[in-house]
Structure prediction request, 481 residues.
Amino acid sequence: MPIQNDEILSFIPLREPTFLILLSLANGAKHGYAILKDVNEISQGSVTLSTGTLYEALARLLDQALIERVPDTGETDSQNSHPGRPRKAYRLTTKGERVMAAEMARLQTLMAVAQQRLVTEIK
Amino acid sequence: MTKQVISLAGRIYALILYLYPTEWHQKYSEEMLLVFSEAVTDAAAQNSLGPFFWRELSDTPKAIARVYWYGWTKKWRKGVQRLHAATSAADLPPPTPDGRDSWRQVGWEVSLFLLAALLLLLATYRPFIALPPGWQRHMGFLGQIIVSLTLPIFLLGLARGLPRWAYPSAGLLISYYALAANQFGLRPFLVVMLLATLILALVALATNPQPAPLPIPLRRIGQSLSLDRSRLSFAVYGALPLVIIIAFDDGYANNRTPYLALAVLVMVAGALLYSRSRQTLTQLGVLVGAMSLAIWTAWLDKLSFAGGLENWIAAPYPGAADLAWTMQLWLTWTFLIVAPALLMTLSRAARPKRTFSL
Prediction:
């Protein structure tokens, strides 16, 4: 079923944790703890998600079909893998990618306007 | 020591996970516990167990609350979607125009009020109609007139998809039965039965995984209700003849003043103005205004006597208690007229529509 633009736009703007989680998954599937660490890294330490917040967001994103659950191949973060324990990884769906693209476009527009105004102000 | 702390924290976190909804617990608890164990081990290695525990402790209750809230709102949205699917009027013929577009419909919409006004004027001012004192409180007598007048109109309206002219009849009929139930001490029974019916209907709709559209007559009623937000209020306004009877409950004495005539005139004018009004606020204003004038005219009627009369039924001297009674009557009917429009507004707000642009 084709995804309507209205449906994509209905997710915009994204909350910061949601945006960071989706951004973390933009370069490939990751399991829970890898996302947790990556979000911390992307935000340069300013956002550290708790386990509860992470999974609340992941469950919502799964429900909205922006991400999907896939079996963890072990490539995502071998350092922290637990052999014999069940583990799932998460990855962006096409819909999730489109939502991210729409959010990026929104932020870029805002940034462009902000930069233009700031430059005018300084001059 | 650190290993013991990590192990204890894991056990406590495993217990906390039981606070999540069961379905959630089954799906995510094992994975969450694994992530928590990894995070706590890392935090211990970095000597930052304190901030880690503080973050987990302060965030977890909020996360649990959000999970429950998301689950409830999702169920609510799903229920509303099912309700709209079941009551969809997309395949129905267009509804009958109402008084806003047709003077003929205005005539139908006002007819009940005209008839009630005529009967009230005759009963009050024409001496050759010998009604027994206290007929205003004789529910059997009132019932014979009200039911024979309103039931055929209401049934005909139902058969035609409940056009706007049927609403006042429905309102008068239901309010008569509500008043009768109240007089015979059956109000709690009536309220419980109504609530039970409503709850059962909602549960049936919510638990049916593939709800079929409701039968066409029911969907036509829904279509009629959704045309404008004030229709139920107009139904409540239909009870005004009965409210006037209650407000002017002082037997034969009413024929000595023109106030009852004024009240019924206001009632008919209110219905006429409502029929032609287009804005919901104007419609509600007209209904509440006319109802208020009719009720407070009855208060003027009481004031104008200020003394006992033959066949007097109400309190002989209108005082604070009488004023309070009139106020209570007025507040009750104002609420009853405004509340349906508010409910309709809320139900429209609850419709699933999430489309906004950048």
Summary: Residues 77-81 of chain A have pLDDT under 50 and may be disordered. The two ends of chain A are 51 Å apart (CA to CA). Strands of chain A lie at 30-31, 67-71, 88-92. Chain A touches chain B at residues 6, 9-10, 12, 32-33, 36, 48, 50-56, 59-60, 63, 80, 82, 85-88, 102, 105-106, 109 (CB under 8 Å).
